[in-house]
Amino acid sequence: MPIQYKGVNFEHNHVREHVGVFDVSHMAQILLKGEKAFDLIQKITTNELSKLIDGKVQYSCMLNADGGIIDDLLVYRFNINSYMLVVNASNTDKDINWIHSCNDMGVEVINITSQRGLLAVQGPKTNAILQKLTDLELSSIPYYSFKIGEFADCQDVIISNTGYTGSGGFEIYLEKKFASKIWNSLFSDNDLLEPIGLAARDTLRLEMGYCLYGNDITESRSPIEAGLSWIVDMKKEFIGKDVIKQHIELGVKEKLIGFLMEERGIPRKDYNILDNQGSVIGVVTSGTISPIFKRGFGMGYILKDYIDPHNPIFIDIRGNKIKAKIVFPPKRSKQKVREKE
């Protein structure tokens, strides 16, 4: 996936208004199979796995013993003994090694990424394009659910009602040998679809307040700091739970916030966030120009005592103190989160 095809502003707005396709085949797909597959995933992830039934998807994360986020991921349930984890591409080896280190249950762990492809078709007009290529009734697939069937005359395709844009749509998991055929079928005889690059993918997710691993969430941050407490179920046992319990009971020093620039300037990762007196109160984790607002915007961690939308904050941009304000992402269902990076 290139940085852009026709430009980030065009691509961003096209996904919001029409439909775009992202080639995200770099995403890692890992199968876990066996009688103890449920128990292993329950142990290494923070969300309650028993909420899942066949054909459903769950957003979750894996923590280290210190409560830091090893990765955030999607869990697909095929049946009680068979699951697929979709994880961040850059974390593939780390994640698989971690799973193996926790696997004292004889669960089969298979990295199928090299055999697979993944296309994310996103936007309000997605159904109009995809329904022509499958007999599966897409309108009957609830959010964070999936079906397996024929698509564009290709077999065993997973069609998942998930995404990382906030504009609706589906993700298509396919065998690599079908990738070109499905890509070409999507673009055949329609003028709605546009290919979308990495830059618009970033502005779309950032506009919705969706975290990016390596920027907004890392092994040095807990889900409580990152605003992901809703995917942590304290009624179950999981690795890192003791630290998370302390974060909930005692509180954390910093939390992740969104911000919108009130003066001209482009915020970038690692820029300092300042208070009115110029003291450092946090750091930018993601930042760019919003194609919608035509202003700089981003996310970052700041001291929790400063988290008040009425308090101005400032971004240190090359020594200049540029005014910004704290904003909150659009209201959404807690399940409406992301397609993994």
Structural description of this entry:
- The chain has two domains: 8-206, Probable tRNA modification gtpase trme, domain 1 (Gyrase A, domain 2); 209-327, Beta Barrel (Elongation Factor Tu (Ef-tu), domain 3), CATH 2.40.30.
- The protein is 18% helix and 33% strand.
- The chain is built from seven helices and 17 strands.
- The strands form three sheets. Strands 8-9-10-7-1-11 form a six-stranded mixed beta sheet, with helices on both faces.
* CATH-assigned homologous superfamily of the largest domain: Probable tRNA modification gtpase trme, domain 1
Tally of distinct domains: 2
CATH class of the largest domain: Alpha Beta
CATH architecture of the largest domain: 2-Layer Sandwich
Q: Would you give the CATH topology of the largest domain?
A: Gyrase A, domain 2
Total helical segments:
7
Q: Give start-end ranges of low-pLDDT stretches.
A: 332-341
In whole angstroms, the N-to-C terminal distance is 12 Å
The neighbouring-strand order within the major sheet is 8-9-10-7-1-11
Mean pLDDT: 95
**Mass-distribution shape:** globular
User: Rg, please?
Assistant: 20 Å
| Beta-strand content | 25-35%
Q: Count the beta strands.
A: 17
**Percentage of residues assigned to helices:** 10-25%
The chain-level structural class is alpha+beta
Q: Write down the secondary-structure element order.
A: HEEHEEEHEEHEEEHEHHEEEEEE
Give a quick account of the main beta sheet: strands, pairing sense, barrel closure.
Answer: 6 strands, mixed
